[in-house]
Design a protein that fits this description.
Elements: E1 4-8, H1 21-34, E2 38-40, H2 53-67, E3 74-76, H3 82-95, E4 99-103, H4 112-125, E5 130-134, H5 136-139, H6 145-152, E6 157-162, H7 168-176, E7 182-185, H8 191-196, E8 201-204, H9 211-222, H10 226-242, H11 250-258, H12 278-286
Parallel strand pairs: 1-2, 1-8, 3-4, 4-5, 5-6, 6-7
Helix pairs in contact: 1-2, 2-3, 3-4, 6-7, 9-10, 11-12
Length: 292
């Protein structure tokens, strides 16, 4: 169900920080037209920590409504409070999400036993497929391969977005889980290597600005044409790099604004992209046109 280029969708905002619902619908439509294989509203790139619960759930529901079943929608419903993660997952399930993406509890720094208890509690209280999300550089919490394998025994825990920073982790996970357990890259720059190790796609930041190219890259690899995938990956690497010149999604939202796709709104504590980076972002994206 989940493979290929799945966009970690930004949340469009007006300059005052209010969610721009019209731009959200337009972005989702652009992704559907561009061949994106799935969407993740309210992940890290969606600025989920800065939206209140009502806004969070409204973004998920609006995305699901616009997609209308054309591709999977994996709703970001993770929290560092287990009860809140259960609540958001239930609500996303009721809204029609195909799966939910659950980041490891950040700041709390739970033990591996705590992580097992956290995810099993969510799985016990919901019926929607669950995708684990390990992003150690942001959370100060690492979901180890052995812990992933233990959690994978639960029938509703179907996969993981792996972004610990070490592509070899994919190989470690693949050795310990069944073939049907889904591994997705969470690091655009490492996706080709992760695919070689057994991932089946990526939840991508770069897909926000180059949806067609990211879809083509993933489709080529999954169709067995690694050379075409590698050629595309080499072209995409400068974009992967520049989109993280400041904390994500700062550069991504600026690029989309520059392309006329969204307004420039972003919520504190993040700030708009520093002026010194504007021309370099523009220059690197110019190699691909405007993403059409």
């Amino acid at each position: 169900m989940l493979q290929g280029s799945i966009v970690a969708l930004v949340t469009p905002m007006h300059p005052d920080g209010a969610v721009d619902w019209q731009a959200l619908e337009s972005l989702v439509g652009w992704h559907l037209d561009s061949g994106t294989h799935g969407l993740v509203p309210m992940g890290t790139t969606g600025e989920s920590p800065t939206l209140d619960t009502d806004e969070h759930l409204r973004v998920i529901k609006r995305t699901i409504d616009v997609v209308a079943g054309q591709v999977p929608v994996i709703a970001g419903t993770g929290s560092n409070a287990t009860a809140e993660a259960i609540h958001q997952t239930r609500e996303a399930e009721a809204a029609g999400a195909d799966a939910c993406l659950l980041v490891t509890p950040y700041y709390n720094k739970p033990t591996q036993r705590g992580l097992v208890a956290h995810y099993n509690a969510i799985a016990a209280e919901t019926d929607v497929p669950l995708v684990l999300y390990n992003v150690t550089p942001r959370t100060a919490c690492d979901l180890l391969a052995e812990t992933v394998a233990e959690l994978a025994a639960h029938p509703r825990i179907i996969g993981i977005k792996e972004a610990c920073g070490d592509a070899n982790r994919v190989a470690e996970i693949r050795q310990l889980v069944d073939d049907d357990f889904i591994v997705l890259s969470g690091e655009d720059a490492q996706t080709l290597q992760m695919l070689d190790f057994g991932a089946v796609g990526t939840i991508s930041v770069t897909a926000n600005v180059l949806p067609r190219e990211m879809a083509q890259f993933c489709a080529a690899y999954l169709d067995g044409d690694r050379q075409t995938a590698a050629d595309l990956d080499a072209r995409l690497q400068p974009i992967h790099e520049i989109l993280f010149v400041e904390p994500s999604p700062t550069a991504t939202k600026w690029a989309l604004c520059d392309l006329g796709r969204i307004e420039g709104g972003i919520r504190l504590p993040l700030l708009p992209l520093s002026d010194i980076h504007h021309e370099e972002v523009r220059k690197r994206l110019a190699a691909f046109g405007d993403g059409e």
